[in-house]
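Listing S7. Sequence submitted for prediction.
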Amino acid sequence: MTMLQGIVIVAFVLLGFLLWVAVKYNEVNWGSRWFGLIDGLNRYLCIRFHRLQPTQIDLPEKGGCIVACNHVSGLDPLLLIAAARRPLRFMIAREEYQRFGLQWLFRGVGCIPVERSGRPELALREALRTLQAGEVLAIFPHGKMHLDSDPPRKLKKGVAWLASQTNAPIIPLRLTGIKGEGDTLLSVIKRSRVTIEVFDTLHCEQTNNAECLEEIARRIEGRFKQE
């Protein structure tokens, strides 16, 4: 057997293994077979490589809801997707949405690009329609990466406004154990031992927006202890 034949055989074995992993670990219907395979590979990466501790975000079986989480790395969205049993639609900065080679992926999974310095209300309207259509909206309310060691930063008001407009429940989450915090690429390639703390669902329709934001912040920033 020549070296070339050996390389071809190894490549086919590797491809077969990846396909088996993608099918075995896929748990969510994204409306496309290809995105289903990507979902499976992502879950395998997060569970096996990043050692995501057994976690399942307690999403309602149907209907709109908001997932609000701290944001410490580029790995964060992949971890949330791996812990969810429904598709998540993320609000992300337009400059991230337009990253070379990734726009097809962000568009395919329904990400909502946000204009930081332009007209953010356009993204809020799209997010509002997303919730009204019964989908799950995922938000990093700090608006950008924010580590526990960083100076305090107020949450963006959009998450509370969306909840008040739609009566959508808010599920606060907190990510810990990620290596390469503060970095987009290094956090994906550095092996972590990740935990997602899932807090009780918040219903902010009976509170004002400021109180709602404070309750979210206490949880995702680690200032709230569950009984």
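Caption to Listing S7: primary sequence and predicted structure tokens for the chain studied. The chain has a mean pLDDT of 92. The two ends are 64 Å apart (CA to CA).
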